[in-house]
From TrEMBL:
It comes from Rosistilla ulvae. This is 31-O-demethyl-FK506 methyltransferase FkbM. SUPFAM superfamilies: S-adenosyl-L-methionine-dependent methyltransferases (SSF53335). It is an enzyme of class 2 (transferase). The lineage of its organism: Bacteria, Pseudomonadati, Planctomycetota, Planctomycetia, Pirellulales. It comes from the Bacteria.
Length: 220
């Protein structure tokens, strides 16, 4: 994401200085910080379930004294409550791929813990959302279905779709693209196939699970 900062989000221009962003899968806040540099008056709601990443996210907001940023320690899902969160969970861990989706996140050496889950629909309510980012490691389709009736209120979306052959029935680029196109978005798909996308210790998992990541840039 840092490598792509010069282009992010090239397909989006906010309607006003106080644009409303929702960042799902905020991690330590790279997207949040980039948005606040570009649009200092933007209001941003960040979701991050990994407790260690969340601590860094909140610290980045605090030490930079950023107004208008709200951080919520929860996974975005299609239901409220609690769920099992899988992945590399430790203060110095590589958290890429941590997910509610066991088919995506259960890997050699992974662990799990219970985290809070939140639906987006009550948060969105009747608000106009300028930009929604979904980078939630395999739960993108479920969340978009949960807010299907509110998609007309959203002006631009970035979705990173995480697929494996075993999880296509519940999370696929084709299904998500069809839903967003039907909701009036223009959708540009870009494959993420970078040599630095995964660390070396996940090479065996990559060969077995055959994961793919596709970026969907969606605008009206």
């Amino acid at each position: 994401m840092c490598r792509e900062a010069d282009e992010f989000p090239a397909f989006f221009t906010p309607r006003a200085d106080d644009a409303l962003f929702i960042d799902c899968g905020a991690n330590i806040g790279v997207t949040m910080l980039e948005c606040k540099v570009r649009w200092p008056h933007a209001k941003i709601i960040c979701f991050e379930p990994d407790p260690f990443a969340f601590a860094s996210l909140q610290r980045n907001v605090d030490v930079n004294d950023l107004p208008g940023v709200r951080c919520i320690e929860a996974a975005v899902s299609d239901c409220d409550g609690q769920a099992t969160f899988y992945g590399d969970l430790a203060p110095t861990a590589d958290g890429r791929g941590n997910s509610l989706n066991a088919g995506w996140a259960e890997r050699p050496g992974s662990t799990s813990r219970t985290v809070a889950c939140r639906r987006l629909s009550p948060l969105i309510a009747d608000q106009q959302i300028d930009f929604l980012k979904l980078d939630i490691e395999g739960s993108e389709q479920a969340v978009l279905q949960e807010i299907a009736h509110q998609l007309p209120q959203i002006h631009a979306i970035y979705v990173e779709v995480h697929e494996t052959p075993a999880t296509l029935a519940e999370n696929s680029v084709d299904a998500i693209t069809q839903q967003l196109t039907a909701a009036g978005f223009t959708v540009d798909a870009q494959q993420r196939d970078y040599e630095f996308a995964l660390p070396p210790h996940l090479a065996q998992w990559q060969a077995t699970a055959r994961p793919t990541q596709t970026q969907l840039l969606c605008w009206r």
